[in-house]
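Quick one: structure tokens for this chain, please?
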Amino acid sequence: MIHRRVLILNQDYSPLSVCTVQRAFLLVYLKKADMVSEAKTPLRTVSSSYPMPSIIKLNRYVNVPYKGVVLTRQNVFRRDGFECQYCGSTKDLTLDHVIPRSRGGKSTWKNLVTACRRCNARKGNQPLEKSDMKLRSIPARPTYVMFLREFAGPGYEDWKPYLGLEEIMQP
């Protein structure tokens, strides 16, 4: 359980970051943050037991400049859910330029999609319109919160309200 991640909220309850349990516990212990939600399993020492943080809220507001998501191969795969954007396959994934580089296409969030090798070869060096293929979703630049949502899988149900995945009622 020590490998769990903890959601860090700003003072206004907006999602800020994700950190390790150790770092979150230290922030709470030093009174720099309050525990909003705890995991089911406690942290144990030889002589004591402490609640394991799942969500913490900073006591002071942190002004963060716009946090963009870096354009990397892994982040494009992550944005596209590790699925081919033409057929939905999850095997033999690669990147495809919607407008091929040889035709002036750039490596940008809006021009890169995840594709399986078969679909990438089938599309070839053609623009999407001439390839007779359709995208399952329109590529777009993801937000930072979208990437925080990735951590909100099984075992992180309590994060969902703070990441816009369900209604939230702030205390």
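The chain has two domains: 5-63+144-163, 73-131.
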